[in-house]
Amino acid sequence: MSFYGVYSQNKDLDLKKAFSFISPASIQESLEKNNLDTKQFLGLLSPQAENNLESMAQKAQAITRNYFGNTIQLYAPMYLSNYCDNSCLYCGFNLNNDIQRRQLTLEEVEKEAQFISSSGLKHILILTGESRLKSPVSYIQDCVNVLKKYFTSISIEVYPLAENEYARLVVGGVDGLTIYQEVYDEQLYAKIHICGPKKDYKFRLDAPERGAKARMRSVSIGALLGLGNWRREAFFLGLHAKYLLDKFPDVEIGISVPRIRPQNHQPQVGDFKPICQVSDRNVIQIILAFRIFLPRLGIAISTRENPEFRENLLSLGITRMSAGSATNVGGHTLYKEEKEQSSQFEIQDQRTVGQIKAVLEGKGYQPVFKDWLYL
Known about the structure:
Layout: H1 3-10, H2 15-20, H3 24-31, H4 38-44, H5 53-68, E1 71-81, E2 87-88, H6 106-117, E3 123-128, H7 137-147, E4 153-157, H8 163-172, E5 176-178, H9 186-192, E6 193-195, H10 201-205, H11 207-213, E7 218-222, H12 230-247, E8 252-256, H13 280-293, E9 298-301, H14 307-313, E10 320-322, H15 339-342, H16 353-362, E11 366-368
Helix pairs in contact: 4-13, 5-13, 6-7, 12-13
C-alpha cells in the first residue's frame, strides 16, 4: 500500500468530533510520553493544545537539542527555469501569468554556482518550473554535472519523476529530493490545480516514495499553509512523514511548512489570497507538534517568513534554513532586478549568507555549510 492508502483511510476524518475527545489531561499525558501515536499527534494540533504551547515548546527544545545539538544546516536555492505546463492558482510560475520566461544556459548555471559557492555554502537546491518539455531530465543532469564542481550536496525540486528517472539522477550526483504535495485535501487539490500534469494528485503524492526507492539520501515533503484547513493539512503531512520514516529508515526525511503571506507584501504577478488564514501562533503550534511527534525529523523554515519570526522559531525544532535566497531564474547574479516581477513567491528574509551566519553564531548555533560529500 502506498501513502494514498493511508490517506484514503483517514480522508473522511471528522476533525470537530475528534477534537471533542481531546482534554487538557490527554494533552498533558502526551507531553509526558516519548513515543506518540497519531491520535496524540492530532491532539497536539487541536485548538485545546493552544493552551499548552509553552509546555510543548519546552519539550520540543529538549528533543531538538538531544537529536540535533545546536546546529542549523544552511543551503541556497537556485532556479534553473520558470517554464511551466501547469495552471496552479497560487503559483507565480502559473503558465497563464505574464512573466519573463527563461532557462539558464550551462554557462549561466556555472556563473550562479560560482557566486553561491563563494559564500561558503556547499549544499544547493535546484528548482525548475514543472515543464518536462523545457526542462527534461537530461537538462537537469547537465546542470548537475556543472554544479558537482562547486557543491557537495545537490537536491532537486522539480516536477514528479518516475522511479527510474530519480535513480538516473542519483547516479548522476543528486542526493536529495524536495517535493511538496501543496495540499493534501484531494478535492481542494483538484479545484486549485486548474490544468496541466500537476492535476495528477496520486502521481505527485507517491513521488517522495519513488525518490526514496531510487536511493535518494534525503527526501523532504511539505504542505503550503493557507490552502486547506491547516490542522487537517498538518495532520496528513505528519502521517506522510511517519509513513516515509517507517518504510525507509535509512533515508533522511524532512518537512517544510511554507505559508502564503498576504500581509504587507509587494504586488506580484498571479497574486493569490490564502483560502485559510494561518497565524504565527498556528505555525509555532505545527512545528512544536511535529518535533514532539517525530523527534528525528528534519524541519526547514522558509524565507517566506520574516527574519524576526525565523529567528524566534530556531529553538523550537528548526534544523534547516535557506540563506541568500532568490526565487527567480538567475536571481543570484544575472537578473537580480527582476525578483518581484518573475519570482515564484515573495521572499521576506533577504539577508545574505554572511548575515544569517552571524545571527546564528550570535545565538549560540553552529551554522553548517557542509555535512555531506557525494563520492
